[in-house]
Amino acid sequence: MKAIFAIAKRELGGYFSSVIGWIVLVAFTLLAGLFFSIMLVGYASQAGMGGPEENITEMMVQGLFGNLSVIVLLVMPAITMGAIAADRREKSIELLLTSPIASWQIVAGKFLGGLAYAVGLVCTTLYVPAILYWLGSPDSGVFYANYGGFIVLMAVFVAVGLFTSSLTDNQLVALVIGFAINLSAWIVGWLAQILDEGAVKSVVEHISMLNHFEQLSKGVVHTNDAVYFASVILFFLFATTQRVEALRWR
Predict the structure, then answer these.
(1) Phi, psi at residue 18, to the nearest 5°?
(2) What angle do CA 216, 220, 224 make, to 5 degrees?
(3) How far is 158 from 42, CA to CA, in rounded Å?
(4) What's the alpha-carbon Rg for the chain, to the nearest Å?
(5) Taking the model in full, what pTM does it have?
(6) Cα separation values, 88 from 20, 21, 131, 168, 178, Å
(7) How many other C-beta atoms are found inside a 10 Å radius of the C-beta of residue 197?
(8) What are phi and psi of 193, to 5 degrees?
(9) 10 Å Cβ neighbour count for 53?
(10) Spatial separation of the C-alpha atoms in residues 92 and 171, rounded to whole Å
């Protein structure tokens, strides 16, 4: 475990010592604040004009994380593109591969480091529940579901990013492949809208990341959603481990 945490600490430090890491952190914080401000003003205006009353928690929190999910889909491949690709290009991966550290430990450490950075991004939005609790009595369950679901979603993107980064020593290639995988899994659910009821439509709906995330954002936690995200994360971590193991014996 010491080796895993040492790698995770090194990886996390690498994110905060890079220009991209800070740009993403600042941009994410600003965009989250912008989205929240716009929705807060919209809700206040609607309430002031006597419009239909909506659940402030669902409107603000689900809307915020719905927008931010698209942002992280775009930026997480940029954050993780160098996780292994940069080590391969700089030949520093050889030090890890020749050390008495198992391939799965290397992958686990890099995954935890990336996930810790992702959680750091999420923590920049903690003013949202503070403000909403100050304004009224929001639904805590929706808060927990959205924050938990968003962190799980980020974990998926980190796992995908590690896998694509292990495929090449070119970070740009890893970025493009990672973005393509994330986007495909996100929008495939749109295809289900034009399909007739049947087995094909059910399969398409099941593999759509967006469909599962929307269920979590509503505060509804189903076993199939949990199994879906766990399976995707474990699959890409396993694939990355196999790739790192192949590099060890090259």
Answers:
(1) -105, 150
(2) 75
(3) 33
(4) 20
(5) 0.89
(6) 19, 20, 45, 8, 17
(7) 8
(8) -70, -20
(9) 9
(10) 15
Residue with tokens 């716009």: 38
Q: How many residues comprise the chain?
A: 250
Which residue bears the tokens 């938990």?
148
Q: What residue type is 97 in one-letter code?
A: L
Tens digits of per-residue pLDDT, 157-172?
Answer: 999 999 999 998 888 9
Q: What one-character DSSP code corresponds to residue 196?
A: P
Token code pair at residue 92? 């520093």
CA distances from 101 to 63, 106, 116, 244 (A): 43, 7, 21, 12
User: Structural domain boundaries of the chain?
Assistant: 2-248
Separation CA 240–CA 106 (nearest Å) = 10
DSSP conformation class of 59: I
Neighbours of 11 (CB within 10 A): 20
List the structure tokens of 133: 């609790």
Rounded to whole angstroms, the Cα distance separating 11 from 109 reads: 8
> How remote is the C-alpha of 156 from its chain's centroid?
5
For 221, the token pair is 């936690």
Decide: 187 and 178 in contact? Cβ < 8 Å: no
How far is residue 121's CA from residue 32's CA, in Å, rounded to a whole number?
Answer: 10
Category of 145 on φ-ψ map: left (φ > 0), alpha (ψ -120 to 50) or beta = alpha
Output phi, psi for 27, to 5 deg: -65, -40
CA–CA gap between residue 51 and residue 32 (Å, rounded): 25
What tens digit of pLDDT does each residue of 52-71 get?
445 666 677 888 888 898 89
Rounded Cα distance between 139 and 242, Å, is 43
For residue range 122-158, list pLDDT tens digits in order.
Answer: 999 988 888 888 877 777 777 888 888 899 999 999 9
156 close to 162: Cβ distance less than 8 angstroms: no
